[in-house]
Amino acid sequence: MKLRIDLIDQYANNFTKVLIDYAPKLIAALLLLVVGIWAIRFITSVSRKIMVRREVEPTLVEFLSDIIFWGLRILLFIAVISKLGIESSSFLTILGAAGLAIGLSLQGSLSNFAGGMLIIFFKPFKLGDTIEAQGVSGTVIDIQIFVTQLLTANNQVIFVPNGALSNGTIINFSQQQTRRTDLTMGISYDTNIKEAKDLITGILDANPKILDHPTASVTVKELTDSGIKIAIRVWVKNEDFGDVTSAILEDCKTAFDEAKINYQPFVRETSR
């Protein structure tokens, strides 16, 4: 019984000695942790406000804020375990090996991550832009790290992987304030070309949404086996593109019917 009591006293003394020796490190680590957490929140908040004040892209603000937040947390964790006397070199080795293994298993995701970085930093488009890429088109409603979300004209959401998006061709219809609409209309060979061109020119002049500069043009584009192709090129504001295109086609049909001009059934719209 006495031996057991002596052992307990010995263990208690050893524990007390270790606790006393280790207490300064533990207190310093706790203080560093508390101060570090407060500093991380302060730095993240200040950096976010600075980026917002400088009108940085919202997606880039969120992305950079997350990088700052988690990067500082990792540094704080390493600093705390170093204060406790734990060798950080072995931990960094394990962390590096784990990172390599994760990277090899997530090569596709890393490609999308890199693509997201390129899109965010080089900004081929921004939120609200209408783009065409990877065989789909729509309005950009969200730019995430791995995917970009597009909203189509029929209210469908399309998720496009950023890896493929950044490596492919992107047509941005919203980057410029104006846009040219190209229409090709066909008339028969027995039609007076000047009369047809004058009718079309009058229709264009009467449309207030068509810009005066650059000047609209109505020209003979091609002579085919079935008829004459007339090219109509006008410049409009981006938001008026669809309305003007539809109005030109409708007004030309009405004017040609009234003038008894025979037109061919092919009407093609393209954009540049």
Report on this model:
The protein is α+β, with helices and mostly antiparallel strands and 272 residues long. 55% of the residues lie in helices and 22% in strands. The chain has helices spanning 2-53, 58-83, 88-105, 107-122, 162-167, 193-206, 241-258, and strands at 130-133, 136-143, 147-151, 157-161, 170-172, 178-187, 217-223, 228-237, 263-271. The strands form 2 sheets. Strands 4-3-2-1-5 form a 5-stranded antiparallel beta sheet. A 4-stranded antiparallel beta sheet has the order 7-8-6-9, covered by helices on one side. It is rod-shaped. The protein starts with a helix and ends with a strand.
**Record field, number of beta strands:** 9
Rg calculated over all Cα atoms: 34 Å
N-to-C order of helices and strands: HHHHEEEEHEEHEEHE
* N-C termini distance: 97 Å
The profile of the biggest β sheet is: 5 strands, antiparallel
Average pLDDT level:
82
Strand order of the largest sheet: 4-3-2-1-5
Shape label:
rod-shaped
Number of helices: 7
- The structure class reads alpha+beta
Which parts are unreliable, with pLDDT below 50 for 5 consecutive residues or more?
Answer: 267-272
